[in-house]
Write a structure and sequence with these properties.
alpha/beta, 8-stranded mixed sheet, 48% helix, binds uridine-5'-diphosphate, binds magnesium ion, glycosyltransferase activity
Length: 330
């Protein structure tokens, strides 16, 4: 990568999905505005850059606060979804509303550090279409989260899904990359996998993730598992193939047991004794079949969701933008 800028300073959009973030939003927004102004002053980012706050159907006072901020700050646009649709959808909604030449997505708690946006912009100026924020280590995570995260990246790699290690949804996309991303019609969003699918010239910015300063994590174990499973089933059909292999292995085992029973019966004076030899294979095959049906069911459920082609979300209100020049895509 060359050190001199290869393209002009872009207008920048910072997209922030928020769910019940009243405790942290004002402070985070102030910090982002400060960063944005600094970038504008330094000439790395063009004037007219904006922050897009997306309210993902919060139940607390996030939306009234967002409206207030958007009315006060000319650089802030607040977007409200009609109900809670989850982080990935909220982020997609925000991205779809932007018109700027480069877009950064960051969580409302700014755990990823607003100061890391500047190096991302530097990479953009040097020609990257996608800049991944990558955590240099995971000291803020529990042992359990670190362990499971590592295992997950390994499994995904084995399944042939090429994720960027330790990258979540803190990234910069050029307009070109974002437009390509918005062409993906799927309902089950796993953005970190989809962005990887896009290709384009990419680079990485390493950073240390901070602790959340207020409010609590909106990603309990259940949601994390659900996102992880979505990542697997949206990007790989390997589990279906594994079922075929499992079927082959268990048939081979069954044939071996049948052969053993027949040989014992025909060529020796003994019969294979006991109920265990009947019941155990029965239980084994029964449970393996159920498990396989479950996995197949997961893929059918995914097909069902995709084939309906329902909109991923509905935008209820947009405050703070000259809404006329915003092209709404859902
Ligand atoms: N979030 C969202 N909708 C949800 C859950 C979370 O928009 O249904 C947002 C949340 O406000 C935050 C981001 O997604 O900006 C990441 O959530 P959080 O910081 O709680 O996750 P963690 O950092 O613990 O993984
Ligand atoms: Mg967080």
């Amino acid at each position: 990568m060359s050190t001199d800028s290869s393209r002009p300073a872009p207008t920048l959009a910072i997209v922030v999905p928020c769910y019940n973030e009243e405790e942290i939003l004002a402070e985070s927004c102030a910090e982002l505005l400060q960063q944005l102004n600094r970038l504008e002053h330094s000439g790395k980012v063009a004037r007219g850059s904006k922050i897009y706050l997306v309210d993902d159907g919060s139940r607390d006072d996030t939306w009234p606060l967002m409206q207030k901020i958007a009315r006060r700050e000319s650089q802030v646009v607040s977007v409200r979804l009609s109900r809670n649709k989850g982080h990935q959808n909220a982020l997609h909604a925000g991205l779809s509303q932007t018109v700027e030449e480069a877009v950064v997505s960051i969580d409302a708690d700014l755990q990823d550090g607003a100061e890391n946006i500047e190096p991302m912009v530097d990479h953009y100026l040097q020609g990257s279409e996608v800049v991944y924020g990558v955590r240099s280590e995971r000291h803020t995570d529990t042992f359990f989260k670190r362990f499971t995260a590592e295992g997950y990246y390994r499994v995904m790699h084995k399944l042939g899904v090429d994720l960027v290690f330790n990258h979540a949804d803190f990234r910069l996309l050029s307009r070109r990359a974002l437009d390509a991303l918005l062409e993906y019609p799927e309902a089950n969003l796993f953005l970190r996998g989809m962005v990887r699918e896009l290709g384009f010239e990419s680079s990485q910015v390493e950073y240390r993730r901070r602790e959340r300063t207020a409010g609590e994590s909106k990603y309990p174990l259940r949601r994390m598992l659900s996102l992880a499973w979505r990542g697997i089933t949206s990007f790989s059909t390997a589990p279906l193939r594994a079922i075929t292999v499992l079927g082959l292995v268990s048939s081979a085992l069954s044939f071996a047991v049948i052969a053993w029973v027949l040989i014992t019966r025909l060529f020796t004076d003994n019969a294979v004794p006991g109920w265990a030899s009947i019941l155990l294979p029965l239980l084994f095959i029964g449970s393996v079949q159920l498990l396989c049906l479950g996995v197949i069911g997961e893929y059918i459920a995914k097909l069902f969701e995709e084939v309906k082609q329902r909109p991923k979300y509905h935008i209820d209100q947009v405050v703070g933008a000259e809404t006329a020049d915003i092209e709404k895509r859902e």
